[in-house]
Specification:
about 350 residues; mainly beta; 7-stranded antiparallel β-sheet; 3 helices
Length: about 350
């Protein structure tokens, strides 16, 4: 159910060229460019368990039972002290749905418009973008339609980057890895390139990674959970000034050991929800069993679309923001308008 045309690949290339030429890449929290030198993560403070780390405090939204397959469950968390609103979609392996990663035929479109064209059950915004389109890696129906940046520029020179992605093979099995494109071949890496402020890593070789054959994939970053442990690789992936105590609306995705997909959305920048740090986002996902998980574009881009409506409160001043890609759950027999 491919929605993109050749124009989408061109937009992706232009977007990546724009991103590499900037002082830094797209802000993984706000979908905006951020300039400045890289710095180490700040300490978050008290690491005792928070109420939102208790799955029993999340409520199952029974109203979606009639609109979604039994294998897809929607939970929400809401508190007033501190103010916080979040949603978690858990999609267990099932013949009723499949993952779909896609980007617009040209430019940017809202998550809801892309979801409607896909006939989706659930959709969230996905990778980062520039005005011309996606600057994060996307694979749609086995075709590598967009490669993320090979390097970003900071003080100290060009930093080659392997950035986190979540992919689905032909059988629907999920995996997360750091990625690099060698020509039109996507490679997966078990660890990010070892960038540190002032010292760029060496450009990777094919031998360091492995070809990654996936049907659907969206890139983002940084990785938040790896092998069941918190593992924010913000510095190595060259995303700076967004961890520690910096809170923003968040979109994130991951998977559990039993193969379930997790989609997390945290509202923010309002009196009703204070947003979340990268570590808090990872802790939420790990509390719900994430074996691996990554951050996706957030800030004003954060959007959760379920059963025909946007269910969160996007923080962009204009309302729902047009974005460069989405990750959706679609019925296996769904047909798009252009098929």
């Amino acid at each position: 159910m491919t929605l993109h045309l050749r124009a989408s690949s061109l937009a992706c290339v232009l977007g990546c060229l724009v991103g590499v030429g900037l002082a830094w890449q797209v802000d993984p929290a706000a979908g905006e460019r951020h300039a400045g030198p890289p710095r180490q993560d700040e300490a978050v403070g008290d690491r005792s368990q928070e109420p939102w780390e208790d799955p029993e405090r999340w409520s199952v939204l029974e109203g979606f039972r009639a609109e979604l397959p039994p294998s897809i469950t929607v939970r929400s968390y809401e508190s007033t002290e501190p103010p916080l609103r979040a949603w978690l979609v858990t999609a267990r392996p099932d013949a009723a749905w499949q993952a779909e990663a896609t980007l617009p035929a040209q430019g940017l479109r809202t998550t809801s418009s892309q979801a409607e064209d896909l006939g989706a059950l659930v959709a969230v915004n996905a990778g980062f973008f520039a005005r011309t389109g996606s600057v994060s890696t996307v694979v749609d129906e086995g075709e590598l339609t967009c490669c993320g940046p090979a390097a970003v520029t900071r003080k100290g020179g060009a930093y080659p980057v392997t950035r986190a992605a979540i992919g689905f093979d032909a059988e629907g099995a999920i995996d997360c890895a750091w990625t690099w494109c060698f020509g039109d071949t996507l490679h997966a890496f078990d660890a990010p390139l070892a960038n540190v402020p002032g010292t760029p890593a060496e450009t990777p070789t094919r031998q360091q990674g492995r070809p990654w054959q996936v049907e659907e994939l969206v890139g983002g970053g940084p990785m938040l959970v790896s092998e069941g442990a918190l593992a924010c690789t913000e510095v190595a992936e060259c995303f700076q000034s967004l961890g520690g105590s910096s809170r923003h609306p968040r979109t994130a995705a991951g998977w559990t050991r039993d193969g379930a997909l997790l989609l997390l959305v945290v509202d923010g920048r309002s009196a009703l929800s204070r947003s979340a740090t990268l570590e808090e986002t990872g802790r939420m996902l790990r509390a719900h069993g994430a074996h691996e998980a990554l951050n996706l574009d957030g800030g004003g881009s954060t959007t959760l679309w379920i059963a025909g409506e946007v269910r969160n409160a996007p923080s962009d001043r204009s309302g729902e923001r047009a974005v460069g890609s989405v990750l959706a759950l679609v019925p296996r027999d769904a047909q798009t308008d252009d098929e």
